[in-house]
Design a protein that fits this description.
The chain is mainly beta. The chain has helices at residues 15-23, 193-200; strands at residues 39-51, 59-72, 76-79, 82-89, 93-102, 121-135, 141-154, 158-165, 168-174, 180-191, 219-234, 237-247, 263-277. Strands 1, 2, 3, 4, 5, 6, 7, 8, 9, 10, 11, 12 and 13 form a 13-stranded antiparallel sheet that branches.
């Protein structure tokens, strides 16, 4: 989900995206947006707990401290909507090319995958269309997003691990003066056979008495919903948190021996501190 990024397949997320989203002031189509600094820099930290991979019964608990950068250029953007190139932006439709990612999972730490290859760091890259279809005033705004991503694994080199598509509905609400923000999402992740094989196939050489060989198919990976929120303590510091629920019932590979649970939950809490801003304003880049 975009709330920590959206589309992190290994049930975790690329922390800088969450930090950027937490640190980013409210953006609207009003002239005030164009008076924001062209760039901002800071540092953030978060702790979170997620399934080791979709359907795993082992969990991954992590704490990270990382820097972040926000950049509000006319085309290239690194903001609460992600990192990438915004090629079209109207009142209703936005089209961009960007990326998201997920952290690795070591098979020795996951009982169901013991003896199998590790799950490496994944980067997802590709286009996304956003359609803003409802402005409900004080009740928030609604939009539909459709990202299509190529999945690249970084483990002993780079290799393509298939494609994903994640249609989703997004609701967002901002408090007065952007003191707080809430964002909810409901979506489904579909993958081609290659990415489903990556998570759920058991090749004959890795089969055991408790883990029979399995051939994975393309199709639904999961359905998920979640909520992401931020609260501004002062102009430089925001705290953020998220909760996410995923269902794997009806997934294309729910019969895989690596699919140990039918649902999964994730949660995290952190903060973002902005310590530097440019004198140049974003409107100079418009």
């Amino acid at each position: 989900m975009r709330t920590c990024l959206p589309a992190a397949l290994a049930a975790t997320f690329l922390l800088p995206a969450c930090l950027v989203q937490a640190a980013e002031p409210v953006e609207t189509a009003q002239p005030a947006e164009r008076n924001l600094p062209l760039w901002e820099a800071g540092i953030g930290a978060a702790g979170f707990s997620t399934p080791a991979y979709p359907g795993a019964d082992d969990r991954s608990n992590r704490g990270l401290v990382l820097p972040f950068v926000i950049y509000r250029g006319k085309t290239f953007r690194a903001d609460q909507n992600g990192v990438g190139a915004r090629l079209l932006n109207t009142d209703k439709v936005e089209f961009d090319i960007g990326f998201s990612g997920s952290l690795p999972a070591r098979s020795k730490d996951v009982e169901a995958r013991r003896g199998m290859p590790d799950l490496g760091t994944l980067v997802e890259f590709g286009p996304r269309v956003k359609y803003k279809f409802a402005d409900m005033g004080e009740q928030g705004r609604m939009r539909f997003e459709l990202p299509l991503r190529a999945v690249i694994e970084g483990r002993g080199g780079l290799r393509r691990q298939g494609w994903t598509m994640e249609p989703r509905l997004v609701w967002e609400k901002r408090g007065e003066g952007a003191r707080w923000t809430l964002e909810g999402q409901l979506g489904a992740v579909f993958g081609d056979r290659r990415i489903n094989r990556y998570f759920y196939e058991v090749a004959p050489q890795y089969a055991t008495a408790d883990r029979p060989a399995y051939r994975a198919d393309s199709g639904l990976l999961l359905v998920r919903t979640g909520l992401f929120g931020t609260w501004r303590m002062n102009p430089d510091v925001r705290v953020f948190g998220f909760v996410r629920y995923e269902s794997y019932s009806g997934a294309a590979n729910q019969d895989s021996p690596l699919m140990k649970k039918s649902t999964g939950t994730s949660a995290g809490l952190g903060f973002a501190w902005t310590f530097a801003r440019s004198a140049a304003r974003a409107r100079a880049a418009e």
